[in-house]
Structures are given as structure tokens and as C-alpha cells.
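New to this. Help decode both lines:
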Amino acid sequence: MSAKTQHNNILYAIIGFAAAVAVVALIGYFTLGREPELIQGQVEVSEYRVSSKVPGRILELRVKEGDYVKVGDTLAILDAPEVRAKMEQAQSAENAAAALELKAQNGAREEQIRGAYNVLQQAKAGLEIAEKSYQRIQRLFDEGVVSAQKRDEVYASYKAMEAQCKAAESQYDMARNGARREDKLAAAAQVGRARGAVQEVNSYIHETVQTAQMEGEVTDVFPKVGELVGTGSPIMSVAVMTDMWGTFNVREDQLGGMEVGKTFKAFVPAFNKEIEMKVYYMKDMGSYAVWKATKTNGQYDLKTFEVKARPVEKFDGLRPGMSLIVK
């Protein structure tokens, strides 16, 4: 056998082996099929953090992790002596402003009014005497008995007493009428300002008793009794168990049938059951998230979308963190 014949035989054998492998692969592909791709998500729940507007020391924790609370239940009590001191200051300022307003509304004291009245009566008496003196001098001047200089001096005294009488009358009217309208309004505004300060401090006092704003389950308690917490520092987290949903990260070539408003089946391994879920949110996760690159083989890149769906019907026992499987 020649070398060329031997070479051809080896080449035919390799080609035949490759063809056999290809045929077996095609048969396996079409007969066995492919395993369906699974999308795994998890159950999530709304949470809110309990925190105070004022700093203080944890005096008492009324609940612990795992407790179920209702709206209005007391969760924690803080000790804030600085706030109580501010309340005393605000109340004192309110009392002072109220006293000033009362003074403005009541006007002058009774003794001041009587004093202004007596001064007025005294001025009227002096005016009466000055007027009579002027009339006598005027008659004597007309008869040529006194000089014009004397008549002018008495007339000036009469006019001065008349002006003094008007001034006393004005003082009496002012004492009787009380404070000006603007002063009364200013005093009332001061009272309103002081009351606002009291209400503000009172709201801070209410912050020392933290209550549940929504019904739910306490998931975390951060500080211990006796520890200091700052303004806005979280004291505990409460999960709103009535607001649950599932979150899935789905590649865009697997989005078939997943549209906002559409329903699909999800398997819950914890209960070995399927539940029906309805999509309400869908958004791409951006280039920083999971991104399958396929351009090297002449196709296109595939982005990942975040899909959120809620159970169509209430499912008892469903807990945050449980897995959800979608085929």
C-alpha cells in the first residue's frame, strides 16, 4: 500500500468519526431537548424605620424583634431632660406675653386715670381764673386805666393756661382709652409667637414616646436600653407584612410574557406550591448591572431588567426572603 493511499484512509477515518459525533450530537439535541431556564427571585416587603426628632437616652423598649404591632402601639420611650427644660422656658415666655397683652387691653391703672383727671380739673380751674383776670384787665384797658403792656402780659398768661388745660385733657383721654391699637396688636402677636414656641416644644416632647405609624412586624431593634440616640437615628425597623412583592432580575431574552399588568406562575419552594403573580413594575438595571455580552459571536448584548410582581391573592405564611422560581 502506497503512502498516499494510507494518508487518504486516515483522512476518511477522521471525517467519518467527526460525522458520527455530529450525528450523535444532533440526535441527542432533538431527542433529549434542553432543560428550561429558571428565573429565581425573592419575596420582599415594605419597611419603615422608627426614629425620633430629638436626641435622647433609651429609657424603655416596649417591643422586641418578631413582635407584631398595630397603629398607635408604644414602641419605645426616650428620656430627654433638655426638652423638658425648653418647655418650662417656653411656658414662662408665654405667660409673660399674656401678661403684657392683658396690660395693653386693660389700659392704664385706675390710680393713673384718677391722677390724670385731677390734673385736668386743676388746669380747668387755673384756666377759669386766667380768663376772668384777662376780662378785668381788658375792661380796665378800655377805660384807659392800665397800659397795653399789662393787658398783653395777662393775655399771654391766659393763653398759656388754655394750652395747659388742653394738654391735661389729652393726658386724661389717653389714660382712659388705654394703649394704642398698634400696641394691642403687637402684644397679641407676641402671645401668638410664644404659644407657637410652646406647641413646637410640645411636639418634641411627643417625640420621646415613639408609636407605630403602620401595622407590621418588628424586624430589627438597634439600640439597647440606656444607650443614647441622635436626631433621626433609627431605633427599630417595622415590616409592613400586608405589602409584599417579588423581585426578579430577568435577562431581556427571557422577558416573554412578562409585561406590566400581565400575570404569571411562580413556584414557592418553601411551600412546594405555585402562586399567581401580577407584574406592576419593570425597569432596566443599567449598564452597571448584570449584562450578558454576546457580540463576540456576531449577536448582540443582552441587558437585565428588574421585574416586580405582587401575588394576585393573599398567601398565608409568605415571608420576606423566600425564594420564587419562574420557568
Observations:
- The longest helix spans residues 110-142.
- The CA atoms of residues 65 and 181 lie 61 Å apart.
- The mean pLDDT is 81.
- The chain is about 45% helix and 30% strand.
